[in-house]
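[job 0417] fold request received: Glycosyltransferase family 2 protein
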Amino acid sequence: MKNRQPTFSDPVLSVIIPVHNEADVIPTLLTRLDLVSRQLEGTVELLFVDDGSHDNSVAQLMRARDRQPGIRVVQLSRNFGKEAAVTAGLEHARGDAVVLMDADLQDPPELIPRMVAEWRKGADVVLMKRRSRAGESWLKRTTASIFYRLINRISDAAIPVDTGDFRLMSRRTVDALNRLPERNRYLKGMFAWVGMPTVILEFDRDPRAAGKTKWNYLKLMHLAMEGITSFSTRPLRLALVLGLLAAGAGGLFGTWEVLRALIFGISTPGYASMIAMITFLSGVQLLCVGLLGEYVGRIYMETKQRPVFIVAEDSEDLAQPVVPQLRVAGNDQKH
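[job 0417] inference complete; emitting structure tokens
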């Protein structure tokens, strides 16, 4: 890999931080990011994407923008969800390299210089792997581990276990992501699908610095379903296998009952066996219909061609009339 020489016509580094009701943590976040920015060579763009916050997150960021150069605030017209907010950030970022991180400071910004050093050595992607996950329950850690191992078994794009959005990507990697046309976007899978030379660094994830998480298990289950249906058709094949097994089991059971009656003169009294078989087959049918519905629903949403996000205001355009920007791609999952 060749060492990279930055171009200084645009920011060398863009740091994308999606924000949704993070007023409690923003002062600490800004202080730590400012200290990190001073350690880096060249200019740094701190790109905050506000995903429809209802607190004073935007007001704090705009005040900080007046004091601190390099801060840019992109406001979405409503809460489109984290995947959409990150997509907006990727499309607005101008750096030769782009870092993604959460606003809650579970991903320490002090690691950014290490990531930049690996990028300058030639890595297109610097992926941060969680060695430990402070502040997370046993249930969340366990279900996350099971999900990533499951999706890696059934998907064509291998997603590294114990990783999140915290990563650095080169400009060509970001450009490749921006060319992907999906409207239902599962970004961790898209990152893996794009590929590019990758360096993995381990770190200890901190507990949330302030405020409360916007995620719950229902939203995490929805995100998991997005990931599975976005990057694998094997659930459909599983439905086919279940159908064949159910049909085979029903045929064998029916044959056995006929043989018992003809050869041994034994007939099964009552309707218990029939009810059990009908219940089993009905369950298999409903499972298959549900799987088909998930995929058909995704096709339906893609055909609508709705934008992933709408930009209501960009702090760089405050001197000009605001014209909402439409981006055709993304999903409607909310924080």
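[job 0417] notes: The chain has a mean pLDDT of 76. Residues 13-232+307-327 form a domain with the Spore Coat Polysaccharide Biosynthesis Protein SpsA; Chain A fold (CATH 3.90.550.10).
[job 0417] exit 0
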